[in-house]
Structures are given as C-alpha cells and as structure tokens.
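Project outcomes to date are best conveyed with an example. Our students and postdoctoral researchers have been running inverse folding experiments weekly, and each run begins with a structure described purely in tokens. The record below, which covers 255 residues, was selected by the lab manager from last quarter's runs and is presented without edits.
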C-alpha cells in the first residue's frame, strides 16, 4: 500500500432502499467490485481497502483485486468504519469513497488529496458541484457555502446562502458531493469526538468537524458521478455499463 494515500471504502451489507445493493451482480460482478476497480484507477489497487461488516463483502472485494478487512458491526457511520481500519494503517491521507458509487471519477479522488497538499490549514477535503432550481430547495441535496481559497464555511440541508432581496435561496448554489479526504490523525481524532449540536440539528456529520475547528477545503468540479440508492439508479448504472462494454467490444474488433 502507498505510504501516502489509502482509499478506504466503507461497506455495510444491510440496505433499506435497495436490499443487498452492494452485492447485486447483474453486470456479472457485484456493485462493490465495480466501485473497487474504479477507485483503484486513482492510485492503483494496492491503495484500496474495503472496510466491511460482512464476509460476503470482503470476498467480493478480494475478487476485484483489492484488500478488504472486516470491521466491527456496530459502527454508526461509514466514517467510523474507515477510522477503525485507518488506525491500523500508516497512510498520510485517507480517502473515503462510497461503495455505492461505481463510477467515481479517479481524478476526483486525486483532487481531494491535492486539496490537502495545497492547504495546510485543512484537515479534511471534499468536493461540490454547481446546482440550482429544485436542488437549492431540496433538503436531501446538501449545500455547502464556500469562502475564499477553497474554504468550506458551512454545510446545510436548507437553501443556503439565502438571497434576502429575492426572498429565496441564492442560485446557483453548491451541492456537496459525498467524497472526503482526511489527514489520518484528523480522521482518528474526529471519529472520537461526540456528536455536535449542529450535526444533530442538520444530520450532517461534517458539521461536527467545523464546530470542532477542523478546516474543510472544498473545490468545485464540473459534474458528479451518480451513486446507486434505488433500483432505478441500479438499472441506470447497468444501462451505462452495458453501453460502455459494447463500445469497448466494437473498438477491439479487427478491421
């Protein structure tokens, strides 16, 4: 494993909206395997470790050519799950990539790592995209307010910032993406902090870090890779994957 960067993928077998989603394998391989292979393009397979609560997920990750370790089953969040494994590693930077994001851009992984290299004040780095319209008012679309120099000022489910003169959320807003890079010791210290007041109010754990004075760097990217939360999301992923495989097969055909 790279001494500099570890990509940790938290994986929990239980899933309410799409049961067993990380093990769905209608493409010929489990969803978690797709996420592993995609993440491995950033720094190589040796940098990736799946942090799983179930042996079936460990086996699926290992078949994808990456390491996997069993974690305690009682973790309350993916952050806590990767912190358990990060405590056993020596990587300088730990990247949290979700197991239900099989199309995560490798460049986005490298970009959050780069934010920590550029900003000594930041203990955590993340990404966002420009958004507007319904997303600015949708509480399921988490917004981030940015300051100068890539500094994240606040995260909220509300329409922030709010345009007083318009009487509505400002547009465009910045929608937060669920990828994080941590300095290893910051992750370990953060995971030991009690849940904070703002975190409990908004149900956003990154607010625990801001309340504790941990700087979060955030930069804007052009687009977000779609995750898989529902059956419709998985079907859409399968359609894109099959189209990609067909295009590859055509490209490999002899002339």
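After processing, the design step wrote out the following sequence:
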């Amino acid at each position: 494993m790279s001494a500099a960067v570890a990509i940790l993928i938290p994986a929990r077998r239980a899933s309410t909206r799409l049961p067993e989603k990380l093990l769905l394998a209608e493409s010929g391989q489990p969803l978690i395997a797709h996420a592993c292979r995609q993440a491995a393009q950033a720094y190589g397979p040796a940098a990736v470790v799946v942090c799983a609560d179930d042996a079936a997920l460990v086996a699926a990750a290992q078949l994808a050519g990456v390491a996997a370790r069993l974690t305690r089953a009682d973790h309350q969040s993916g952050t806590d799950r990767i912190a358990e494994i990060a405590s056993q590693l020596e990587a300088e930077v730990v990247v949290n990539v979700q197991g239900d994001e099989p199309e995560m851009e490798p460049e986005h992984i490298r970009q959050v790592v780069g934010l920590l290299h550029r900003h000594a004040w930041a203990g955590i780095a993340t990404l966002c995209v420009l958004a507007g319209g319904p997303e600015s008012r949708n509480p399921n679309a988490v917004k981030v307010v940015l300051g100068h120099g890539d500094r994240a000022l606040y995260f909220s489910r509300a329409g922030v910032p709010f345009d007083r003169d318009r009487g509505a959320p400002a547009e465009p807003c910045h929608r937060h993406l669920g990828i994080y890079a941590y300095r290893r010791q910051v992750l370990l210290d953060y995971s030991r902090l009690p849940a904070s007041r703002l975190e409990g109010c908004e149900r956003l754990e990154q607010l625990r870090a801001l309340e504790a004075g941990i700087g979060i760097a955030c930069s804007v990217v052009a687009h977000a890779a779609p995750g898989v939360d529902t059956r419709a999301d998985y079907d859409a992923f399968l359609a894109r994957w099959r189209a990609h495989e067909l295009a590859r097969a055509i490209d490999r055909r002899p002339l």
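The longest strand covers residues 173-183. The chain has a mean pLDDT of 95. The training component of this project remains on track.
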